[in-house]
Design goal:
Layout: E1 2-7, H1 11-26, E2 30-31, E3 40-45, H2 50-66, E4 72-77, H3 84-90, E5 95-96, H4 105-108, H5 137-149, H6 153-160, E6 173-177, E7 179-180, H7 191-195, E8 199-200, H8 203-215, E9 220-224, H9 239-249, E10 254-258, H10 262-267, H11 269-278, E11 281-285, H12 293-298, H13 306-318, E12 323-330, H14 337-350, E13 354-359, H15 377-407
C-alpha cells in the first residue's frame, strides 16, 4: 500500500505531518511522490489567513483531480475545523480529520501501531532543505570573510537574520512536540478554533524524548508547540519547572523555544534568565503582534507590553546568548498611524533578530471577524512594506557589525 502526504502549513503543522508520515511507515506503508499511484492521499492544510485557505483549496482541488478514484483522500491540519464546506465543494468524498480526530487513522488503515504511540523528532521528509540552496552573493561574501579570519560571526548572523535558514530546519536539531493549542483567546486567532483548548504533552514522554536525543548525540533541541511557554499550566507546573528538570541531566545542550507568549516570558523571566545567560536557551520566538495598548486591547491581549520590553532590553544590555524572533499583525481593525509608530518604537527597543510580518486577514468564527475592517488594503500593504524595510535596515546593521567583529578577530 502506498501513501502520498504533504502539507502547506507552518513548522508546527509540518511537525505533526511528519508524525503522520512516520505513523504510516511504522504500519508498513510505502511513500510515493506520485499522487496518482497512492492508495492514501493525506494533505494537512493551514488556514490561519484567507490567502492560506485559498492556497490550500487550490492544492486540494489539484490532488482531487490527480488521485485515483479508489484512493482515500484525508485532509487534516487547521483548515477542516472552519472550512468544511469549502473543502467539500472541491473534494466531496474527502475525509476531514481535525487535530482531535487524528487517532481515527487507526481504524482507517487497521493499524498495528497506534497513532497515540507515535512521536516524531528528526529526519524531516517534507521540507526542501534550505541549506542545499545555492548561497546568494551576499552570503558568499560573508562566508569568505569568516573563512579569512577563521571565525563564523558573519554566517551565523546572516542565518539568524534571514528567511534562508530557520533553526528548526537544520538537520542537527532534535524536535520535540511539548504542547497543543493555546490558553489565550486572542480576538483574531483562528488556530484556537482548529486545535482547541491548551494541553501539554505528558511530562514523562517529553523527558523521555530529551533523554533519547541526548543519548543519540544531539546537542540542539527544539521545543515545538503553538504556545510552548504555557507548558504545564494544565497540571500545576510551568515551563521553568520543565527546563530545570531537563538541565539536571543535560546541562550542555541548547534549547530553542517556538513559541512563548510575552506575558509568560515576563512571569518566568527571573527563573529563565540563567538559561539565557548560559545559552541553554539559545532561541525563542515571542510574538508581540502590536505594541499599541489600544490595538492589543482589541486583540484581547495584555495592553501593557512595557514589562516585556524591559526584559528584552535587559537581555540585550547584558549580551545574553539567545536569538530573539517576533511576529506582528499589520492593519488590524482600527489601527492608526500612532499605533504603527508605537510598534516601530517597540521593535527598535527590542532589536529582534527577525520579525515575521503578517497582514491582518479576518477569519470567520473569530471576534475580529465581527469588527469593521476599516484599514484600507492599500494602507495595509504600504505598512507591511514599511515594516519590511525597517527590518532589512536593522538586519544590514547587524550584518555590518558582524563583519567588523570578524575582521577584528585575532
Amino acid at each position: 500500500m502506498k501513501l502520498y502526504i504533504n502539507s502547506n502549513g507552518c513548522a508546527v503543522l509540518k511537525h505533526e505531518t511528519e508524525r503522520i508520515a512516520k505513523y504510516f511507515k511504522l504500519n508498513g506503508w510505502e511513500r510515493t511522490s506520485l499522487v496518482g499511484e497512492a492508495d492514501f492521499v493525506v494533505m494537512t492544510c493551514c488556514g490561519v489567513t484567507q490567502n492560506e485557505e485559498d492556497q490550500a483549496i487550490g492544492i486540494i482541488n489539484s490532488l482531487e483531480c490527480e488521485r485515483k478514484k479508489t484512493s482515500s483522500f484525508i485532509i487534516s491540519g487547521c483548515l477542516p475545523a472552519f472550512a468544511k464546506e469549502h473543502i467539500l465543494s472541491v473534494a466531496p468524498k474527502a475525509i476531514l480529520l481535525t487535530y482531535q480526530q487524528l487517532d481515527q487513522f487507526d481504524q482507517l488503515i487497521d493499524a498495528k501501531v497506534s497513532f497515540k504511540d507515535v512521536y516524531y523528532n528528526v529526519n524531516p521528509t517534507l521540507d526542501v532543505k534550505l541549506m542545499n540552496m545555492q548561497p546568494t552573493d551576499e552570503e558568499k561574501a560573508l562566508i569568505a570573510i569568516d573563512k579569512w579570519r577563521n571565525v563564523n560571526h558573519c554566517q551565523k548572523t546572516y542565518e539568524l537574520c534571514t528567511f534562508r535558514k530557520y533553526i528548526w530546519q537544520d538537520d542537527d536539531v532534535y524536535q520535540i512536540k511539548v504542547s497543543y493549542g493555546c490558553p489565550g483567546n486572542c480576538s483574531y486567532c483562528a488556530t484556537k478554533i482548529a486545535i482547541g483548548n491548551f494541553r501539554s504533552v505528558n511530562k514523562s514522554l517529553v523527558l523521555k524524548q530529551f533523554r533519547e536525543g541526548v543519548e543519540l548525540g544531539y546537542h540542539r533541541f527544539m521545543m515545538v508547540g503553538d504556545e510552548v511557554g504555557s507548558y504545564g499550566v494544565d497540571f500545576g507546573e510551568n515551563i521553568a519547572d520543565l527546563l530545570e528538570e531537563i538541565h539536571t541531566f543535560a546541562p550542555n545542550i541548547e534549547i530553542a523555544i517556538r513559541y512563548i507568549h510575552p506575558d509568560v516570558l515576563v512571569r518566568n523571566y527571573e527563573r529563565l534568565k540563567p538559561f539565557f545567560v548560559s545559552g541553554f536557551i539559545s532561541y525563542f520566538c515571542c510574538a508581540i503582534q502590536s505594541a499599541s495598548p489600544t490595538i492589543l486591547k482589541l486583540m484581547n491581549r495584555n495592553p501593557n507590553i512595557e514589562p516585556f520590553v524591559k526584559c528584552i532590553e535587559d537581555m540585550n544590555a547584558n549580551g545574553y546568548k539567545v536569538s530573539k524572533h517576533t511576529q506582528i499583525v499589520v492593519g488590524f481593525p482600527g489601527e492608526t498611524e500612532a499605533d504603527v509608530l508605537a510598534t516601530i518604537e517597540c521593535l527598535m527597543r527590542c532589536d529582534f533578530d527577525h520579525i515575521n510580518i503578517n497582514k491582518f486577514s479576518p477569519r470567520k468564527g473569530t471576534k475580529a471577524f465581527e469588527m469593521e475592517d476599516n484599514v484600507p488594503e492599500t494602507v495595509k500593504v504600504n505598512r507591511c512594506q514599511m515594516f519590511r524595510r525597517f527590518m532589512m535596515m536593522r538586519k544590514k546593521e547587524k550584518m555590518y557589525q558582524a563583519v567588523i567583529k570578524s575582521v577584528l578577530s585575532k
